[in-house]
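In the laboratory, one determines a bound structure by crystallizing the protein with its ligand and collecting diffraction data. In a computational setting the workflow is compressed into a single prediction: the sequence and the ligand go in, and a structural description comes out. We illustrate the idea with S-adenosylmethionine.
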Amino acid sequence: MDYDGTGIARVYDKARTLAPEALRLWLDLVGRDAAPAPGSLIIDLGCGTGRFSEPLAERFDARVIGIDPSSKMLDQARRKLRGDRVAFETASASALPIADGAADLVFMSMVFHRFDDAAAAARECRRVLRAGGHVALRNSTRETDFPKYHFFPAIEPIVAKELPSRSRIAEHFENAGMRLSVHEIVPQVVADDWQAYAQKTSLRADSFLSRISDADFAAGMAALRAHAAEAPPGEAVTEDVDWFVFVA
Ligand SMILES: C[S@@+](CC[C@H](N)C(=O)[O-])C[C@H]1O[C@@H](n2cnc3c(N)ncnc32)[C@H](O)[C@@H]1O
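The predicted complex, in structure-token form:
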């Protein structure tokens, strides 16, 4: 999907901000399962607006190259940059502008299902990683039960067609010559309460919600707001995310 053809970049950070605890959770998992040594090169593949790029550089004292084909998403990422350890490049996962064996870690967040050629992307990850380097990947899968399903049933056929199954993700990296070392389902708080979740969802910065009809979106928002009005105050909204680590 071409993010430049949508308005997602403009509202992505507002709609998909990670609370500091959620960001810490993912960085802790990287540290636990794929810790890059200081000075390592991390590729943030499909980095979008760079939600993880600078935090990865800071936490692991690493250089990060964020790669994404969308110039609109990268424009947002560049605006946020504070230090000089992160650089961004416009490219696709199937042809990475990185030398063989140059990277220690390829990190991917919510991007695997966007690849036109997932097999080529997995091969590129293997090519750019040094022996013993890691792929660390967080993504929804076909098996994930998201809160959005319950309010926007129109996304179901898109999700069923586009989200990979857990076994398919593993197969791509194994076929590329990597070994699965971790798979875990990680619950993540996506909003502190249902009102906040409805507010974030209303921004429609989601590749599934952006493609249902306006009428289906309006009906789903009405159902979600009605649920939010009845939900206990302070009930956090969580979503399961699959976490995979592969070793080169
Ligand atoms: C949901 S966003 C995730 C962005 C970021 N990783 C995050 O977690 O905030 C998906 C991103 O995948 C990018 N993308 C789509 N096709 C891609 C490809 N072939 N190679 C690399 N990135 C791609 C999109 O441009 C978009 O920025």
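The chain has one domain: 3-144+163-190+239-247. Keep in mind that any predicted model is a hypothesis to be tested, not a measurement.
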